[in-house]
User: What shape does this take?
Amino acid sequence: MQIDVKEAARLLAVSEKSIYRWIKNGTLPGYRVSGQYRFNRSELLEWATSRRLNVHPDIFPEAREEAPDLAEAIRTGGIHYRVAGADKAEVLASVVALMRLPDEVDRRYLLEVLLSRESLGSTGIGEGIAVPHVRNPIILFSPRPVLTLCFLEQAIDFDSIDGEPVHTLFTLVSPTVRSHLGLLSRLTFALRQPDFRRAIAGQAARDQILAAAVAVDQSVRSPKEAR
Assistant: This one.
């Protein structure tokens, strides 16, 4: 879905002047249609994630309706330590091999899609973290969102925005665009929360990471959902 400058400013919690400034310097992905700028919400969220902008998950009403809990998505995808790989391709191959996916998912194809996505621009968001994902999640036929957390045996160059090598990967596969947006925005929010950040930075035990993820889910859950 396309949104305009006003909606983009609301999404990113900035002024419309900031949006136009980012357009002018060529950093913000957008399109000009009949003299008006338009943005793809998925691309805009990816862009915000890569720059650690504070995008609240509630900004997407339809994504919130289907947004899976962060903790449940991580439980589904699994947490793995000392994942091998000397470069981006080898690491992603190791990650795909570890992911908990239905038998009908073609892992070789998934790896190709992830590498293709990286060729468009690194998913390294800085501070040693990358969020590999696909731009067309529905084609993978995964029945529920999967977020696989991998701590690498050795940090590797990922062409990240800050130039720092990556040691932690959150690999995201979702069955629908809506759940993709919801989970990506939830993860973006989580990475700004001190307890969750400390658990990830310290490569804490699985139960500690999941507890921190549960706390994030509880902090963004509506009063109706919490009952």
Q: What stands out?
A: DSSP finds eleven helices and eight strands in the chain. The radius of gyration is 17 Å.
